[in-house]
Predict the structure.
Amino acid sequence: QAAYTGQDQANVTTWLPLVTNEGTHRTRIAVQNTAVHSASATIRYYDGTGNLAASDVLALAPHGSALVDPELPGSPTGPPSGFQGSAVVSSDWPLVVTAYELDPQMGSDAYNGEGQGYQHAVYMPSVRNYGPDGTPTIFVQNPCCAAALVTIAYYNLAGAQVASQTLSLPAYGSAAVDPQAVLGGGFDGSAIITSDQFPAAVMRSVTTSGAVHTTELYAGTQNPDQRLHFPIVHRPNADGSGQETTFSVQNVSPDSPITVW
């Protein structure tokens, strides 16, 4: 299964930090034209070193959409076989973009593309190092045109920084970062990614302890807010059956406590 949040803002440039084409494990990209005008869009696929590996050009009707999936007949080509990297979607009219990470072995989920921004920080409200009950990987993208120095700082639930990782990314480059390299088992907290450029990031958490493996994805954000809306919330039944919703809330202020209700 896969879920994603409806988007309230379209962008002429959208960043996708995690794009894969490894056979049946691949990324399906959904692109929607929100305008009343026809739109021309280009998806550029960059490998980890920042080299342009492939591109797709899309012609979208007013309010039209397209799916890019190498496994779908008639789909645009997508990235080359064996690809692991990132993508930048650009258009002459605002678009919204969602990426489905489809993996028949580890489970599937989706994340929304991040609209081009000019902030030097990305916020990740949930980082859990629970081994087979939650193995984290952070996919970091440097989506523009100069080399970047990136730092990932990890904070426990009390707000204390407990570890950090630093990496250098070339222009348009990306990397898969393993938080387990610096976090102890059982860690539960958050991360702030900073850069001298404008970073984007996606968190992937894989659970392998059950009969069926599952994957959870979410995109970090450059834009924290004071009011957030959740279209669906689950509470288990009295006998413990059913689904449950867990919220992860991150205070991005370095010096001010907040109250959440």
